Amino acid sequence: MNEEIQNKIPELESLLFHYGDPISVKRIASMLQIKEKECEELVALFQTKLQEDPLRGLMVMKNGEEIQFVTKPEYQHVGGKIVEEEFKEQLTPAALETLSLIAYLGPISRPTVDYIRGVNSSFIVRNLLMRGLVERTQGTERKNTYEYSVTFDFLKHMGIGNISELPEYEKYKKIFGDYEKQEFQTQGEEKQISFSEPAQSSEETAVPDTHQSEQ
Question: Minimal CA–CA distance to 70: which of 110, 123, 142, 2?
Answer without folding.
Answer: 123
